[in-house]
Design a protein that fits this description.
The structure is a homodimer. Chain A is α/β, with parallel strands linked by helices. Chain A contains 24 helices and seven strands. At the A-B interface, α3, α12, α14, α16 and α17 of A face α3, α12, α14, α16 and α17 of B.
C-alpha cells in the first residue's frame, strides 16, 4: 500500500538543495515554475532551517507574497521562526488585511516583538487593524483603493489613472471613490462610466451619490447580506468619523465564509484552537487534539457511570453488553445528522436560533420514523440471536426511543448554543453524545431490569 | 426554552396572506423589502400550494430570479411541484449554468418532461450543458460575455457597448473577448485598456493575444489552480473545436468550492445523497438519513460481534462492560481528528494520495503521545474505581494501543479512498469506526482474558 516517494525527485528536495547552495535566482526561477499548491506542498516539507533560509534569501516583498499563498497557520509558524527584525521587514510588505490576519495567528507576544521593529506610524496602523473584530468589515477591508475629490474633472481623473498606471495595477479599480475634503465618502464611479463621459464633466455630476456603504464594525453576516442584496464587486467601508476607510471586496467575503466553514468542519471533528497541518510542530498538534480528547474522557465517564449502576442486570443478561456500544454509536449518528442540518440551516439563515418549536416538530417526525426503523432492525437481530423476543423488544425499544430523543436534541442543541452566544460547532457533539449515551444506557438497562425475569 | 414565534407577525404568514388574495404587486413589493435570507426563510415556510401560487403569480423571469436565491435543493423541489409547462417557462429564463445545476438536482424524469416543453434549440443547448461533468469548466461557465471581431476598431466597440448598455448590464464586462470568424478565441481586452486607446485602433492591435484559457472538460481542481496562478476575475473557456464557449468567473469557482466543502461537511455528518433542509418533504429527508443509518447498524453489529466472543470474560469482570463504550467512543474521536486533518490537507493540495509514509510517520507520533495520555487517564480511573491495578493496565493499555491504531488509520483511510477514486468524506468514518471498534473491543477483552486470574 505504501509507495515511498522518490525523495530526490520531489520538488521540496530540489528546493532544499537550491537553498543549500544559496542561489537566489535559481530558487526564484524554481518557485516561479511551480503551481501554488505545489509551492505550498514544497515549503511545508522543508526543514525549519531551510524555511528560514528561504525567507532570508528572498526580498521582503517576495517573501510576503509567498507567505500569502500558504495556509495561515503555516505562514504564522514561519514568521515566528524568524527574528523579529526579519519578520517585521516581511510583514511590512503585506497588504493591511493580510498583516492583521497573520499577526492574529502569531499571537500577542510575537506580534508585540514584530511591531516594535517597525516605524511607529506603521505599527500604530497595524495595531488599529488588529483591533477590529475578526471577520468584521474593518478586518476584511482592503486599503488599496482610489479616491478623487468631487470637484475634479473626468479628464483630470483619467490623466491621474494613466500617470499612475503602474502603481494602480495591484488596486481594485472596478470602482473609483469620490470624497469630500475630510475624506468623507460622497459617491462612487464605475470605470466604465468614465469611458463615455465628456472630459470636462465634474466627478460630482457623474458619480452615484450616497452610495451603499459598510461600517468598520459590521460583522460578517451583515457584510454578506449587503453583498447578497447588491450586485457590486466591492463595497466601501466608512469609519466612525464617516471617513472612507477601505473597500471590502466580494471575494474577501467569500473567502471569509469559506474560512468559517472550514473552522466549523475542523471543530466538529474535534480539532479545536486553530487549524492543523501536519507541517506544524508536533507539540501544538498533539495539544490541540488533547484539548478535545481530555474533556471527552470525563464526559464519557459520566455517561458510562449509568452502566455501572446496572452491573447486576448485565451480570444476569450478559448479551446486553454487546448492545450498549451499538446503542451509543447509532444514537450518536442519528443525533449528529440533526446537528448538521441545524448548523447548515443556521449558516444559511434559514432558521433563527429562537425557532425551537419548528425544529422540534420537524425533527420529531424524523425521529419517530427513523427510530422505528432502526429499532425494529436492531430488535430483530437481538431476537434472532438470542431467540428471545423480550430481549428484542428491550433493545429495539430502547434504540427507537433514544433515536427519537437524540434526533430532537441534535436539532435543538445548536440553536440553544447559538442563542447563548456559544459556538454550535464546538459544543454540540460533546453535549449531544453525553446526554444520548446516558439516556440510551439508562433506557436499555432499565427496561431490562424491569423485564429481568423474562430475559433470563 | 421554546418560545413560539408569533405566527401572524412572521414574514411568511404575511406572504401567505398576500398570496391568498392573489395581489401580484403587493407580493412583489413585499419580497422587494426582504433581505435574501429573509426571502429564503419565508419561502421555505410556505405550504406547497402557496409556493406554487407564488411561482405562478410572478412573471417567469421574476420567478427564475427568486429560485436562484434559494438553496438548490429547495429550488428543485419547487420546480418539481409545478407542471412541466410552468417549470419550463421559469427554467427558460435562467442563465445556462443555473439551468443545468438546477435540473441536475431535479433528476432525469422531471428534467425530461421540462425539456420537452421547450423549443428544440433551447432544450438541446441545456442538454449539452447538463452533460458537462459537474463542477467542470463547462458546467461552471457563464454564457453572458461580450465578443468583438479582431478587425473591429476601438471606436466601433465603444459605440456597440454604449448602444447595448441595457442588455449588457447583466453581463460580466470586466473583459471583452476578441474572436476570429469561426468564434475562435484570439485575444482578451480589458475595459480599462479601451479607455485611453485611440478610437481608430484595431482591436487586434490592442488585445492581449493568445490569452490563458480553460477547456470545457477541465475539472474544478484544474480551474481553481488556474485562478490561483492568474489574477483575473474571469477566464475564457474554449470547447473541443477551439471556439469560445463561455467564461468562468472567479466567483463561480469560489462558490463551487464552498459547495463542495458543504457537501463534505454533510457527508461526514451522515447526510448522504444530497443536501437536506427541513422544508424538504419528510419522506426524502428520512430516507436520506436512513441510507446512512442502516448500513451503519450492520457495521456496528460486525464490530460488536467481537464482544459476543468474550461473554465469559465480561461475566467474570463485569466492570469491563462499563469501559467498552468509552474505548469505542474515544478511539473514534481520535481517529476522526486524523481523518479531518487528512481531508483538509487533501483539499488544500498539501498532501497527495500516495503519501502514505508521511502520514504514517506524522500520525504515528501523535498517536503515541495522545494514546499514552488518554490511556494513562482512563487506566487511572479504572484503577481507582475498582482498586485493581491490573484492570487499570488492561483498560489503559488497550485504549493507548487502540488510539495509536485509530490515529494512524484515520490519517491513512482518506488517502486510500481518494486513491481508489472513492469519496473520503463519505466512507472514512464508517470504515474507521468499524475497524477501531473491533480492535478496541478485542484488545481490552483479550488482555482481560489473559490476565483474568488477576482481575477477579
Amino acid at each position: 500500500m505504501t509507495e515511498p516517494i522518490r525523495e530526490e525527485d520531489a520538488p521540496w528536495a530540489r528546493l532544499a538543495s537550491l537553498l543549500a547552495i544559496g542561489e537566489v535566482t535559481a530558487v526564484r526561477d524554481f518557485l516561479e515554475r511551480l503551481a501554488p499548491d505545489e509551492i505550498a506542498r514544497a515549503i511545508t516539507r522543508l526543514s525549519g532551517e531551510h524555511q528560514q533560509a528561504l525567507m532570508q534569501l528572498l526580498q521582503n516583498a517576495e517573501a510576503a507574497e509567498l507567505l500569502e499563498e500558504l495556509p495561515e497557520a503555516q505562514a504564522a509558524t514561519m514568521i515566528e521562526d524568524l527574528s523579529a527584525e526579519d519578520a517585521a521587514g516581511i510583514v511590512g510588505e503585506m497588504p493591511g488585511e493580510s498583516q492583521a490576519e497573520l499577526l492574529r495567528e502569531v499571537g500577542q507576544e510575537g506580534t508585540k516583538a514584530i511591531l516594535q521593529e517597525m516605524d511607529a506610524a506603521v505599527s500604530d496602523h497595524i495595531r488599529e487593524r488588529i483591533e477590529y473584530e475578526p471577520e468584521s468589515a474593518g478586518a476584511l477591508m482592503s486599503e488599496r483603493f482610489l479616491t478623487f475629490l468631487e470637484d475634479e474633472s473626468v479628464g483630470a481623473a483619467l490623466r491621474d489613472l494613466e500617470a499612475h498606471k503602474e502603481r494602480y495595477a495591484d488596486f481594485h479599480v472596478q470602482y473609483l471613490y469620490v470624497v469630500g475634503n475630510r475624506d468623507d465618502l460622497r459617491g462612487v464611479l464605475r470605470i466604465r462610466d468614465l469611458l463615455l463621459a465628456p472630459r470636462e464633466q465634474k466627478l460630482a455630476d457623474l458619480m452615484i451619490p450616497d452610495p451603499v456603504a459598510l461600517s468598520t464594525g459590521d460583522g460578517l453576516e451583515v457584510v454578506a447580506t449587503m453583498f447578497e442584496r447588491h450586485p457590486f464587486l466591492g463595497l466601501p467601508v466608512i469609519d466612525d468619523d464617516a471617513r472612507l476607510a477601505g473597500v471590502v471586496l466580494r471575494s474577501a467575503v467569500q473567502e471569509a465564509r469559506a474560512r468559517r466553514a472550514r473552522k466549523t468542519f475542523l471543530k466538529l471533528s474535534g480539532i479545536i484552537g486553530g487549524d492543523e497541518l501536519r507541517s506544524l510542530p508536533l507539540r501544538s498538534r498533539s495539544l490541540r487534539r488533547l484539548a478535545f480528547l481530555c474533556p471527552n474522557i470525563a464526559l464519557n465517564l459520566i455517561a458510562a457511570s449509568v452502566i455501572a449502576l446496572y452491573q447486576d442486570t448485565i451480570q444476569a443478561v450478559i448479551a446486553l453488553a454487546v448492545f450498549l456500544p451499538i446503542i451509543s454509536d447509532m444514537s450518536g449518528c442519528s443525533g449528529n445528522q440533526a446537528v448538521a442540518v441545524s448548523i447548515r440551516e443556521l449558516s444559511l439563515g434559514l432558521i433563527q436560533p429562537r425557532e425551537f418549536w419548528r425544529v422540534f416538530v420537524k425533527e420529531g417526525a424524523i425521529g419517530l420514523i427513523n427510530g422505528t426503523v432502526v429499532g425494529l432492525l436492531l430488535g430483530l437481530v437481538a431476537f434472532l440471536w438470542q431467540d428471545n423476543i423480550v430481549l428484542g423488544a428491550v433493545v429495539g425499544g430502547a434504540l427507537a426511543l433514544n433515536t427519537l430523543l437524540s434526533v430532537v436534541l441534535g436539532g435543538l442543541v445548536p440553536l440553544f448554543l447559538k442563542r447563548c452566544g456559544a459556538d454550535p460547532a464546538l459544543a454540540s457533539a460533546p453535549i449531544l453524545t453525553t446526554v444520548t449515551d446516558m439516556c440510551g444506557f439508562f433506557l436499555v438497562l432499565n427496561f431490562a431490569s424491569i423485564l429481568l425475569s423474562r430475559l433470563t
